Amino acid sequence: MGQQVAVSLRSNFERSETAEPARLHSRTFMVLDAKEVAVIRFEGVSKSFPGVRALDSVSFSVPGGSIHALMGENGAGKSTLLKILSGAYQPDGGKLVSGEQTLQFSRPSDALRAGIAVIYQELNLLPELSIAENLFLGHLPVKKCFLDAKALQRASKEALMRVGLTLDPKTKLGTLSLAQRQMIEIAKALSRNARVIAFDEPTSSLSSREVETLFSLIRELKTQGKAILYVSHRLDEIFSLCDAATVLRDGKQVSTYETLSDLTPGRLVQDMVGRELTDIWGWRERKIGEVVLEDESGVTVHAGEIVGLFGLVGAGRTELLEKIYGNPRASIKSGICLCPEDRKKDGIIALGSVQENINLSARRGFSKLGFWLDERAEQASATKQIEALSVKTPSPAQPMGLLSGGNQQKAILGRWLSEKIKVLLLDEPTRGIDVGAKREIYEILYAQAEAGVGVLLVSSELPEVLGICDRIYVMREGKIVGELTRAEATPERCLELALPSSPNPNNGEPDKAESSFDSPDKQRLIGRVTPNPPRTHPLLVPRRTLPSPRREGGHEGNEWTGGFEWPGGFECSPTSKYLLTQRLGDWG
Amino acid sequence: MKNLWKRGGMAVVALACFAVFALLVPGFAAPGNLADVLVAVSTVGIVGCTMLFCLAAGDVDLSVGSTVALSGVLAGLLLQQKFSTPVAVLVPLLAGALIGLVNGIAVARLGVNALIATLATMQVVRGLAFLASGGGSVGISDAAFTRLGQLKIGMIQSPVLFMVLFFVVFGLLLSKTIFGRNTLAVGGNAQAAHLAGIDVVKTRICIFVLQGIAAALAGVLLASRVSSGTPRSGEGLELAVISGCVLGGVSLTGGVGSLAGMVAGVFILGMVRNAMDLKNVPTFWQMVASGAILLAAVLLDRWKNRRT
């Protein structure tokens, strides 16, 4: 469903591009104007919380008409910086400067008034209200103390047009897709004449085509002379979108790159992690045992094996995992357990202590007569898991919600490792987790596999699937469409199988994996030629298909040019390339 | 001092209330008066134990006041029909369990919002109490039955003993058993608890059934104490109980709550009411004061959480 919405979104965008020649004129005018004013500069900004120096003298500037990436692991201080920018926090030292003027915000509305908009991951929109009301909440047009509905409608249409949406402003916001809501949030910022727009990991829950639409809009904002601050974990996004980058680590500014043209992803990762990661995956040969999981969908997992389940967003991977998991109680009893996709919603009890969260499931096994708690056993088990998985927490009594994402994930793993498990189902186990913690999670998985556990892992990150799995199933439209061994699995093959229709299938070479298809599926995969532009995976930046807002004289500085071509006319993003060479490296 | 405040929380406030009233309100600290305070809070205290579980699991039960009334009326009617005393105690308890089961199934299995479901049963049960009694009170003269709520051991009247027993049992249940931990887990994140293999539906239904039984027992004790089953008794009880729990730091969104906090909350409200009675504060002003205290306590709690 998300994909369909994305299609309409995109066509809307293109329509508004061509239909409005008059607007281009005013835009050029704005560029001149904005380039001089729309500059935000951080000068030695510092912020401390009890016991933590969250930001330590951070200085960089974002000129108008440029996109500045802000990178760092979780807890590096990115959010704190954004909160200072938005006026939610006040800096202890240093200042924000715009042009010649020092900015001082005592509350978020001050920052809004100064033309600064921060678009958070969790959007601040009201699902029960209409688009128009959401756009102008707080300054709704009024005529004689009544709402001026006509003016509201007109202004909303205009605001929506600016982000390329042609929705009826009366539509209830709750009916929109996440990507559309994000556009609404941007329209809101623009309608308040924001000159500085900051995005906090805007792509974390978007499908790849929604990401495209968002990126073209961000590039358009850039051409309008806005100063844009872009926070993300994803290296490929940074390289395809941004002009400059600042890396934070533990609140300190590690580096600022004014241009990304001769920067390597490896260098950025090193800056973020603080040490060189020569091998991100650390995969090693293991002994594979007998079958521990067999599902009617065709998935089998052996003891000691890490099996990947790859597919595009919406291919039905999560549904398949949930189907395998079925009734939690019965599954756990037979040794199958699940780490759900949405940690916050389905995984953790935020108010409960780390110990509680670890013992949530295994507790029954410790109890006396199945009724009384065995507190000593619980404590011992929690301490053991915290140590074994190196969960960083001040104490087992720390509320789970205060831990970082990576540590929460480790604690959830700890919940299952204190059970006697045979199969571990993982849904996007490293989403939103920084590079260092990812590796720790991989190591936990390897250790479990070595101990004879079968691991089935869903991930949208192709390099991750290729990097840590022994075998890969590819899913499309709710079905398993292919199976690849580690030796067979290449990014092209995986994507060919995963994409609904392959733009340039096979390269004439017969694919072993396809022998397992039933024929109608095969027909659909290879035979159909589609008029649609090829679909992309988030890790692959399409070179020719992007509806670039300005085809001539656009942004050439940061486009990766030395890449190699994929069969489907894709170009590998620097990150994927980097990660893939990493993987090739460990195969020797 | 700071640590004491952080750990003791509302218990410290309750002790402070006690000290202040003992100093400022003549007659408050007299043993007879204190015994009265205990009896007065016993109904709220008993129902509060299970309401604590209900709130901690993220639910709420508004039907407790009506259950108190219905069980008292039922006990009275059964005694009028010359049923034996044990029957007159057990049947109301079963009725309470049944009300709880209906609430629990509606909320946990059928997914009706707890506020709505129990608002409905609150009215239904209150109506049934009036229908059963014909609108008036049902007098009770059975000596064995009235002894249940009027027996005195020293200064202490039996409902107080029941209350203390409930405190102990439910305190252990919450902090020392799987059921208690599961309750907090369900209230903290029902979906996560479900995926971790906790039977969420069963846990919530269990809590509602316990809640019904506790309310029915409180109703039987009340009827026994005042020698009549009144269909109007227990009006507003649900709000008094919820106030006490919230005052004691129990979160209305679930996942947080301690028995000590609930007890402190219930006692603070009870002592304030008694002190105002002694000072001859008019009833209507007492209502204003109770509401203000609740609001102040919640604000205090917010302030405390923001600082730590």
3D structure, described in words:
The complex is a heterodimer of chains A (588) and B (308). With 588 residues, chain A is of the alpha/beta class. Chain A is 39% helix and 19% strand. Chain A has a 6-stranded mixed sheet with strand order 6-9-10-3-11-12, sandwiched between helices. In chain A, strands 16-17-18-15-19-20 form a 6-stranded mixed sheet, sandwiched between helices. In chain A, strands 2-1-4-5 form a 4-stranded antiparallel sheet, with helices on one face. Chain A starts with a helix and ends with a helix. By secondary structure, chain B is mainly α. In chain B, strand 2 and strand 3 (156-157) form a beta hairpin. The longest helix of chain B has 27 residues, at 200-226. Chain B is globular and about 55 Å long. The two termini of chain B are 14 Å apart. Chains A and B meet through helix 12 and helix 13 of A and helix 9 and helix 10 of B.
Provide the structure class of chain B: mainly alpha
What gyration radius of chain B follows from the Cα positions, in whole Å? 19 Å
Strand portion of chain B: under 5%
Q: Write down the Rg of chain A.
A: 25 Å
Strand order of the largest sheet of chain A: 6-9-10-3-11-12
User: Spans of chain A with pLDDT under 50 lasting ≥5 residues?
Assistant: 1-38, 502-588
Largest sheet of chain B: 2 strands, antiparallel
User: Helix segment count of chain B?
Assistant: 14
Helices and strands of chain B, in order, run as HHHHHHEHEEHHHHEHHH
Count all strands of chain A and give the number. 22
Largest interface: A-B, 27 and 21 residues
State the helix count of chain A: 22
Q: Whole-number average pLDDT of chain A?
A: 76
Report, as a whole number of angstroms, the end-to-end distance of chain B: 14 Å
Largest sheet: spatial strand order of chain B: 1-4
The global form of chain B is globular
